[in-house]
Amino acid sequence: MLEAVNPTIGVLALQGDVREHMRALAECGAEPVPVRRAAELAAVDALVLPGGESTTISKLLEVFDLLEPLRQRLRDGMPAYGSCAGMILLASEVLDTRPDMQPLYGIDMTVRRNAFGRQVDSFETDLDYTGLDDGQVRAVFIRAPWVEKIGDGVEVLATVPSGPAAGRMVAVRQGNVMATSFHPEVTGDLRVHRLFVDTMVRPRAGV
Ligand code: GLN
């Protein structure tokens, strides 16, 4: 009899809300592992890039010799999901960041960091999310970015429904790489993680 195997999903653990993603992934039936070294990165089926401080994480990727190995795994088709700072890291171009920020080119998109401005540092809203048909998703934005421009082959999964930022792209997907401006890991709603695990990671990992 074949043993059921769960996909091993790394959570980039250099800085940010690592624990929340580890918990959400475990609840989705994956094996979450923290990733800080190239050998750990090489052993995972997929990677989650957490929220935190994108310029700090970018710097630490260089310090820990993870930048090129991570770019290579993304080029090779490793599934990845980034929330907030993770979205910024996965971009091909970042606006309003430090000049030495190193993009990972995981998704062909231009992302504006801290895009919602100081007045609306943090806010929550309900939004429709393509692929999640059983009701809206509660989206928590914390000094969040938005996606300003996308290339061919990038699918928009969610936009801001109303208010001054109405229509802004806040969730996107290109192949098996997904990014959200907001933090589903803090609400206890597992559907965004489940979408990643079940439709992007399992088919590719064969488990
Ligand atoms: N503003 C942060 C950055 O630039 C992202 C905030 C977050 O991840 N909650 O990286």
> Whole-number average pLDDT?
95
Number of helices: 6
The CA-CA distance between the termini, in Å, is 15 Å
What structural class do you assign from the helix and strand content? alpha/beta
EC number: 4.3.3.6, 3.5.1.2
Organism: Nocardia otitidiscaviarum
Subunit structure: In the presence of PdxS, forms a dodecamer of heterodimers. Only shows activity in the heterodimer.
Pathway: Cofactor biosynthesis; pyridoxal 5'-phosphate biosynthesis
Which labels suit this protein?
alpha/beta; Rossmann fold; 207 residues; 3-stranded mixed β-sheet; 27% helix; 31% strand
Characterization of the model:
It comes from Nocardia otitidiscaviarum. Catalyzes the hydrolysis of glutamine to glutamate and ammonia as part of the biosynthesis of pyridoxal 5'-phosphate. The resulting ammonia molecule is channeled to the active site of PdxS. GO terms for molecular function: glutaminase activity; pyridoxal 5'-phosphate synthase (glutamine hydrolysing) activity; transferase activity. Pathway: Cofactor biosynthesis; pyridoxal 5'-phosphate biosynthesis. Belongs to the glutaminase PdxT/SNO family. It is built from six helices and twelve strands. A seven-stranded mixed β-sheet has the order 2-1-3-4-12-11-10. Strands 5-6-9 form a three-stranded mixed β-sheet. It is an alpha/beta fold. It has a single domain, classed as Class I glutamine amidotransferase (GATase) domain (Rossmann fold). 27% of the residues lie in helices and 31% in strands. The mean pLDDT is 95. A hairpin with a 2-residue loop joins strand 7 and strand 8. 44% of the residues are buried. The protein binds glutamine.
